């Protein structure tokens, strides 16, 4: 366990962000490797895998319910030196991860084809996306366990082991992708099914390695089978913080689905170009997102310790660092987009659309970085409802106008990107205002997840252990 309530905030951020970023970048590299090898199968395969990957936003919504709730509550417990409560939350989250994983497998089997029919441009894209999803669903189901294990460590200030496991999973995925997709060395190519299978095998091995770490090394939070029995009061604590954050990712799923819907009349090349551009954009945003995610445990531990001024300082410093990073990558996307997009497709039309998308949409990177930082701060404060409100605002101010514009004569896909910039800027402004209001309301109050009787007995000082 690492105490984040003392010492330099900038030093804590810069120490935690690189391992978090490496872990996230490796996930994106997996998706980009899949797209790279799938690109040899044609535009329909690329569009299908890219569109199917958007379903990951919906699954990520459930993952965020677990991850955000786990990080916030364990960080609060660590801040108030309450190890028993940290362990109880961790084990209750493990039980939820099993339930959500099983739910993902059932939903994937039942809804993969209907989902692809709703957004794909043609039958070939539908078949490719459905096949990929069915083989990719085991990876998504296992990610719930990975999320809880990594979140438990991150809340205690430990990020290295999760990074190592992510890197290991990526190495395995990269090694398996050409073998399973293209048949390298075997002569038996599985196509898009191989892309999904490679990811599922890699994640399964990663989960096993992380489980071994918890069994052999980790001591602050640990497995306790007696605490796996669902306890409604503590499940409610996790869900109260996690559900609004999960709703944020559900909003992103709707946002992306609308993009694919309004682009489908432009054909598979347009959807493929957007899919490539979107993944590259997500990759270059990872450093800023990692900085933002590092602020969540720092803010959470300081909320638990009752250090309000330090919580405010965490936001200011994280926002400044994030803004500088985003400006740097925005300049690269504007001046040398070919450095980021080279090699993903040989189709000129597909790559022209990817270039256009990246050049326009990168203009909102500073606003997106502020959204990341505000979102992580809300998680640290233990109240994620404002995050859901700002995300819903972005979806509604984008989706309805985008769908309306797509029905108008002379509609061009550039309109979609410019509209996205406006909606993102509005969300950033709203997030900043909501966070300012939240600071005024919550920093002088006791942590939200404290038990009622503890709040009455000690309204400002860190409370004792929450009763089971």
Describe the structure.
- The structure is a single chain.
- This protein is mainly α.
- 79% of the residues lie in helices and 0% in strands.
- It is built from 17 helices and no strands.
- The protein has helices spanning 9-38, 43-53, 55-79, 83-119, 123-155, 160-182, 192-216, 232-263, 268-284, 286-304, 308-335, 338-341, 348-361, 365-381, 385-406, 414-442, 452-457.
Please outline the helices and strands.
Layout: H1 9-38, H2 43-53, H3 55-79, H4 83-119, H5 123-155, H6 160-182, H7 192-216, H8 232-263, H9 268-284, H10 286-304, H11 308-335, H12 338-341, H13 348-361, H14 365-381, H15 385-406, H16 414-442, H17 452-457
Helix pairs in contact: 1-2, 1-6, 1-7, 1-9, 1-10, 2-5, 2-9, 3-4, 3-5, 3-8, 3-10, 4-5, 4-8, 5-7, 6-7, 8-15, 9-13, 10-11, 10-14, 11-14, 13-16, 14-16, 15-16
Q: Biggest sheet, open or closed, and with what strands and sense?
A: none
Could you report the average pLDDT, rounded to the nearest whole number? 82
Order of helices and strands: HHHHHHHHHHHHHHHHH
Structural class by sheet pairing and helices: mainly alpha
Beta strand %: under 5%
Task: Give the beta-strand count.
Answer: 0
Instruction: Please report the number of helical segments.
Output: 17
């Amino acid at each position: 366990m690492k105490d984040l309530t003392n010492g330099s905030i900038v030093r804590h951020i810069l120490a935690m962000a690189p391992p978090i970023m490496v872990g996230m970048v490796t996930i994106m590299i997996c998706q980009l490797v899949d797209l790279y090898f799938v690109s040899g199968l044609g535009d329909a395969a690329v569009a299908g895998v890219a569109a199917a990957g958007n379903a990951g936003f919906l699954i990520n919504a459930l993952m965020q319910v677990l991850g955000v709730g786990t990080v916030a509550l364990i960080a609060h417990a660590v801040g108030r030196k309450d190890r028993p409560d940290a362990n109880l939350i961790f084990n209750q989250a493990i039980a939820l991860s099993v339930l959500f994983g099983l739910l993902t497998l059932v939903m994937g089997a039942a809804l993969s084809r209907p989902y692809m029919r709703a957004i794909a441009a043609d039958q070939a894209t539908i078949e490719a996306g459905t096949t990929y999803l069915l083989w990719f669903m085991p990876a998504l189901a296992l990610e719930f366990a990975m999320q809880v294990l990594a979140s438990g460590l991150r809340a205690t200030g430990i990020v290295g082991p999760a990074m190592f496991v992510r890197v290991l999973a990526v190495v395995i995925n990269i090694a398996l992708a050409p073998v399973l997709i293209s048949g390298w060395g075997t002569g038996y190519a599985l196509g898009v099914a191989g892309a999904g299978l490679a990811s599922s095998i890699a994640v399964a091995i990663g989960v096993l390695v992380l489980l071994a770490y918890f069994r052999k090394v980790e001591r602050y939070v640990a497995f306790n089978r007696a605490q796996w029995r669902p306890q409604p009061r503590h499940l409610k604590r996790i869900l109260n913080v996690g559900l609004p954050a999960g709703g944020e990712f559900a909003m992103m799923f709707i946002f992306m689905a609308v993009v694919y819907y309004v682009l489908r009349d432009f054909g598979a090349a347009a959807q493929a170009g957007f899919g490539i551009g979107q993944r590259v954009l997500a990759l270059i945003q990872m450093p800023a997102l990692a900085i933002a995610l590092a602020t969540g445990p720092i803010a959470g531990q300081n909320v638990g310790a009752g250090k309000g001024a330090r919580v405010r300082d965490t936001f200011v410093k994280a926002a400044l660092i994030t803004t500088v990073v985003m400006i740097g990558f925005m300049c690269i996307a504007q001046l040398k987009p070919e450095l980021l997009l080279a090699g993903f497709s040989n189709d000129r039309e597909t790559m022209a659309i990817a270039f256009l998308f990246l050049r326009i949409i990168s203009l909102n990177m500073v606003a997106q970085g502020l959204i990341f930082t505000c979102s992580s701060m809300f998680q640290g404060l233990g109240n994620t409802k404002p995050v859901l409100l700002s995300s819903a605002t972005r979806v509604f101010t984008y989706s309805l106008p985008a769908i309306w514009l797509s029905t108008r004569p002379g509609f061009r896909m550039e309109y979609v990107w410019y509209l996205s910039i406006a909606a993102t800027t509005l969300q950033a402004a709203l997030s900043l205002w909501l966070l300012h209001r939240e600071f005024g309301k919550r920093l002088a109050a006791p942590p939200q997840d404290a038990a009622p009787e503890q709040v009455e007995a000690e309204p400002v000082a860190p409370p004792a252990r929450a009763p089971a």
